[in-house]
Specification:
The chain has helices spanning 24-30, 43-52, 57-68, 84-91, 106-112, 146-158, 177-202, 219-228, 243-247, 257-263, and strands spanning 2-11, 17-18, 75-78, 96-100, 117-120, 132-138, 160-169, 206-216, 231-239, 270-277. The protein is α/β, with parallel strands linked by helices. The protein has a seven-stranded mixed β-sheet with strand order 5-4-3-6-7-10-9, sandwiched between helices. It has a three-stranded mixed β-sheet with strand order 1-8-2. Strand 6 (132-138), helix 6 and strand 7 form a beta-alpha-beta unit.
């Protein structure tokens, strides 16, 4: 496991280091809020804004979940956030209960999707209040270190019925040479260069800010932690070879997408793990 930092430009003398999100409000600010000013006039507008026009990972999530869940399954989603993927599956007849520390835009969401099932649940505190056939978690586990993940996986296992499955994408490529190159050299170097250019050509004073984004895990670490909790890997698929190089790097993002995709084969952004309870 490796600490994951992101870098960006702050004007003037604003703070240079931002700690890891510790609360839901911290995470909401990192996600630039859960605004309801657009996308809540209709179901069609909701999915157009938050699924079709959103990050491509949502489509990979949808395709994988649709292939590995059954409509009759009693499924719990952990850390559902805006519940976009869950609501799209629910519209297709899947039985999913969403959960998070809070439910952003709850009133607006319930107006569009009155069948939404939601419960406040903190997976770090203990098992869910009842058992489920399937549990899913999308783009959340990067916030926790290995000790926390060990406790979380145990709570997930205790929340599953016999032979239940747990599907997750921890968010972000694994800790390997490619991501270390991106995190420790490419991104901070590009931000330092941008800072210099802003000073030279615009006379702007700014600082390179460093944010504790979470943690990079290896595939082997996640599989080992799950195994100790009584969860065996039964399937794993990887997608999205563009995001890590093409979206995080200003330079690589300007290269042809095919070339960036080839470079990104070593750092797929989406890692879908599918575990079965022993």
């Amino acid at each position: 496991m490796k600490t994951w930092y992101k870098y960006f430009i702050n004007p003037g003398n604003e703070k240079k280091f931002i700690p890891l999100d510790a609360t839901f409000d911290d995470h909401k600010r990192s996600m630039e809020g859960y605004d309801s000013s657009k996308g809540y006039l209709s179901k069609e507008e909701f999915f157009e804004n938050y699924f079709h026009r959103a990050h491509l990972r949502h489509k990979y999530y949808h395709d994988y979940l649709k292939a590995h869940l059954k409509k009759e399954d009693d499924t719990l989603s952990i850390g559902s956030g805006r519940c976009v993927n869950e609501l799209l599956l629910m519209e297709d007849g899947f039985n999913i209960t969403c959960s998070d520390l809070e439910q952003p835009c709850r009133r607006e969401t319930m107006r569009l999707f009155p069948r939404l099932q939601f419960m406040n649940y903190d997976v770090t505190k203990g098992p869910a209040s009842r058992k489920f056939d399937r549990i899913i978690s999308l783009s959340m586990f990067y916030l926790f270190d290995n000790a926390q993940l060990s406790e979380i996986f145990k709570n997930v296992a205790d929340s599953l019925r016999a032979e239940g499955t747990f599907i997750l994408d921890p968010c972000g490529a694994e800790n390997n040479l490619g991501t270390r190159l991106i995190d420790d050299f490419i991104c901070p170097s590009e931000m330092a260069l941008i800072k210099i250019l802003k000073k030279i050509f615009r006379g702007e004073d700014c600082v390179v800010a460093k944010k504790h984004q979470g943690y990079r895990t290896t595939d082997a670490e996640i599989i080992s932690i799950a195994k100790r909790a009584g969860l065996d890997l039964c399937d794993m698929e990887k997608y999205d070879y563009f995001t890590e190089f093409g979206m995080r790097s200003n330079i690589f993002g300007r290269l042809p997408k095919r070339l960036v995709g080839l470079l990104g084969r070593a750092v797929p952004y989406v890692r879908m793990f599918n575990f079965k309870k022993e």
